[in-house]
UniProtKB/TrEMBL annotation:
Residues 57-324 form the Sulfotransferase domain. Belongs to the sulfotransferase 1 family. Keywords: Transferase. GO terms for molecular function: sulfotransferase activity. Its EC number is 2.8.2.-. This is Sulfotransferase. InterPro entries: P-loop_NTPase, Sulfotransferase_dom. The keyword Transferase applies. It holds the Pfam family Sulfotransfer_1. It is an enzyme of class 2 (transferase). The keyword Nuclease does not apply.
Length: 327
């Protein structure tokens, strides 16, 4: 492999084509690097992210394994952080006009497409995002003053089921665009086997979650670990926690005037899903509407057999044993 991350973040330019390639996760091409299967497109931006990105102390980076509530967290963090400039009850709020992924950008993708120029132009405080594992983040983000990081995790069984629907939808759209050629069969069972082998975007899931979990225990003031299921159960409580962590806790006056509830409502699945901007259009090859499905905990039980669930649970439990993290 022609490049690697080092302590001073000097990255030689990658020869990504020499990395192991996985094409059985349609329509995404994955490359293996640093113990993870990463989106080829995103990986292209990693060397520049390491060598060029200049974090600001006020930056907040949202980390996630895909399909674990990234879109929701992007919306909540942006709405919370920018509530002074954009009151969440306002009819012209940016989230009413733009998809959350067009407001909060993936660091590695931004460096892949434009060397991060759009990020450098953003005013402070910036809310940014990444699907990279903790171990592949630049040290400028993780060491010293670095940035605050918020990670969202979710039951891997629900993440898998969510990714199955998302992947199928995206693959179907890609096929339609390409003229409807019959695809090779890609079944739920095959997708499950790949997931259990850690072959999926940013997989293995358990290794991804563990990196952030351990860092959240080591440096709780810098890494906040959130759970999708907890956020569903008590969204307002988690928004308050998020605000405190980002250094912009709600004042008594804001609490009294219902700002927290306004943010919760603005960013709810129902609200975002029904916005015109999210009913059409796309973020690259990904249709805006494909980011919003059911938004519940436990949907896996409608799609996985008990044997499948037990198998995945066992893999994850074994991998997380001794870490203090359980699902
Ligand atoms: P389901 O497919 O289980 O419904 P990501 O944003 O990381 O791609 O995750 C997508 C999952 O989050 C999908 O789960 C989607 O429905 C859910 N989701 C998207 N927006 C949400 C919101 N505002 N509130 C709760 N869940 C949301």
């Amino acid at each position: 492999v022609a490049w690697s991350s080092s302590t001073d973040d000097a990255c030689a330019i990658a020869d990504i084509t020499s990395l192991p390639l996985e094409t059985r996760f349609p329509p995404f091409r994955l490359r293996q690097y640093g113990g993870f299967w990463l989106l080829e497109k995103f990986l292209e931006g990693v060397p520049a992210l390491h060598s060029v990105f200049e974090p600001r102390p006020s930056d907040v980076v949202l980390g996630s394994f895909p399909k674990c509530g990234t879109t929701w967290l992007k919306a909540l963090a942006f709405a919370t952080r920018n509530r002074a400039d954009h009151p969440p009850g306002g009819l012209d709020h940016p989230l009413r006009r733009r998809n959350p992924h067009d407001i909060v950008h993936y660091l590695e993708l931004q460096f892949a497409v434009s060397m991060g120029h759009a990020l450098a132009a953003l005013p402070s405080p910036r809310v940014l995002a990444t699907h990279l594992p903790y171990s592949l983040l630049p040290r400028r983000i993780t060491a010293g003053q670095g940035c605050r990081i918020v990670y969202i995790c979710r039951d891997p069984k629900d993440a898998f089921v969510s990714s199955w629907f998302f992947t199928n939808k995206t693959a179907a759209a890609e096929r339609a665009r390409a003229g409807g050629e019959e695809p090779p069969p890609y079944t739920f069972e095959e997708a499950f086997e790949l997931f259990c082998d850690g072959i999926c975007v940013s997989g293995p899931q358990w290794r991804h979650v563990l990196g952030y979990w351990e860092e959240s225990r080591r440096r709780p003031e810098k890494v906040l670990f959130l759970r999708y299921e907890e956020m569903l159960r008590d969204t307002a409580g988690n928004v308050r926690k998020l605000a405190e962590f980002m250094g912009c806790g709600f004042s008594g006056e804001e609490e009294a005037s219902g700002v927290v509830q306004d943010i919760v409502e603005l960013c709810s699945l129902k609200s975002l899903k029904n916005m015109d901007v999210n009913k059409s259009g796309s973020h690259g090859p990904l249709a805006h509407e494909s980011f919003f499905r059911k938004g519940v905990a436990g949907d896996w039980s409608n799609h996985m057999t008990p044997a499948m669930a037990e198998r995945l649970d066992t893999i994850v439990e074994d991998a997380l044993r001794g870490s203090g993290l359980t699902f």
